[in-house]
Design brief:
There is one protein chain. The protein is an alpha/beta fold. It contains 13 helices and 15 strands. The strands form three sheets. It has an eight-stranded mixed sheet with strand order 1-11-10-9-12-13-15-14, with helices on both faces. Strand 10, helix 10 and strand 11 form a beta-alpha-beta unit. Helix 1 packs across helix 3.
């Protein structure tokens, strides 16, 4: 009976297996306030100090059918697994299939979205010891009535730290502009290097939208000359706001709904020596006390999602001074970018669209039409 209950419970709970896009400001007003660093927050997403080298046994279940993934994960967790992760079994092949997160908050909350998963998956589960891992797999086969192709191994619990570090190398954004991990010493001293500690916040330079926005900032700041204020909505790691500062902007403001993202921006600003010129706000930017909120921003950039990009057009237009410029990304090239162009045409002129890898950056110049 207990195992039957586990099966029913597991199959009733579809699992979100991948979220490929950054978090975005919501449309509901929230109070914004400056956020200061705490030791706990810094430790939350820092790769430093992870020196526990104890054994971490795990099992990898190969090529699990999509309709069994959620149930298998829940069963393994109920049988003692400390964590379960899922990846595309066809990753790196011509059969690899990208699954993107939803465009609206309502869609993200739907059962259909939560149930999206790759056709075949590799499922990895960590257990306290190999005996429990093997027992867990045997029980899962019995409970679910399926045969599982499982392999067992172990790693040092801090191996993932070095693996993460090894996976990040300097990323060229444009000629003379790089994003570099903070531990990397082999950098071009003649280039503009934005130092980041890759972590839980979006914005490491690996995604086309980050590169599109940084290239636009590089060109725009060079053309404008003196730029007093840049506002970055959905700042994530802070890469766009920090990039603007190291490329010559006087001040920048980073706004995000996620506390961890704002903390990441604070820490990354310190790595680049610009913390005294970056102000971070936890919220959605509707607080009239946020710098730039009353048409004071020379540049506004938002690398978020199509839903908030469309919904927050009046807010962004209200931040941008007449003659100021805006760049919007996190949107797909084609139908989505066309809808952004149409939405922003009232308050912005000279709207252009730049594309990379199917993603778009839409930018324009603020006209005098009141919000």
């Amino acid at each position: 009976v207990a195992r039957a209950f586990v099966v029913a419970f597991a199959r009733a709970r579809p699992r979100v297996t991948r979220a490929a896009r950054p978090s975005a400001p919501a449309t509901k007003p929230r109070v914004c306030a400056p956020l200061c660093a705490s030791a706990d927050d810094r430790a939350l997403h820092s790769l430093d100090g992870c020196d526990d080298a104890s054994d971490a046994p795990y099992v990898v279940v190969k090529r699990v059918d999509a309709h069994d993934v959620g149930a298998l994960g829940d069963v393994l967790l109920s049988l003692g697994a400390s964590s379960v992760s899922t990846i595309d079994a066809d990753a790196g092949t011509e059969d690899e299939h990208e699954i993107f997160s939803a465009n609206t908050f309502e869609e993200q909350a739907s059962d259909k979205t939560k149930a999206r998963v790759w056709a075949k998956c590799h499922v990895t589960a960590y257990f306290e010891d190999h005996a429990r891992a093997r027992a867990g797999i045997e029980a899962a086969e019995e409970i679910l009535g399926i045969s599982l192709e499982a392999s067992y191994a172990e790693s040092k619990s801090n191996d993932w730290v070095q693996a993460v570090k090894d996976s990040f190398t300097p990323t060229k954004i444009a000629d003379g502009l790089y994003i570099v991990p903070d531990w990397c010493k082999d950098v071009d001293a003649n280039a503009v290097n934005i130092a980041l500690e890759p972590g839980i916040a979006f914005g490491t330079g690996e995604h086309p939208t980050t590169r599109l926005c940084l290239r636009w900032l590089k060109q725009t700041l060079a053309r404008r000359g003196k730029t007093e204020l840049v506002v970055d909505f959905g700042c994530g790691s802070g890469v766009l706001a920090i990039g603007a500062l190291v490329m010559g902007a006087d001040r920048a403001v980073g706004v995000d709904l996620a506390k961890q993202a704002v903390q990441s921006s604070i820490d990354n600003a310190k790595l680049n020596g610009v913390e005294d010129r970056l102000t971070t706000y936890l919220g959605d930017g509707r607080d009239p006390g946020t710098p730039g909120a009353n048409g004071q921003a020379d540049v506004v950039v938002a690398n978020i999602l199509i839903g908030p990009v469309l919904e927050l057009e009046p807010l962004f237009a209200g931040y941008c001074k007449v003659g100021g410029e805006i760049a919007l990304s996190g949107i797909l090239y084609g139908e989505q970018s066309a809808s952004v162009v149409a939405k922003y045409a009232r308050h912005f002129d000279n709207i252009c669209v730049v594309e990379e890898g199917g993603w778009a950056c839409v930018h324009g110049v603020r006209n005098g039409t009141p919000v």
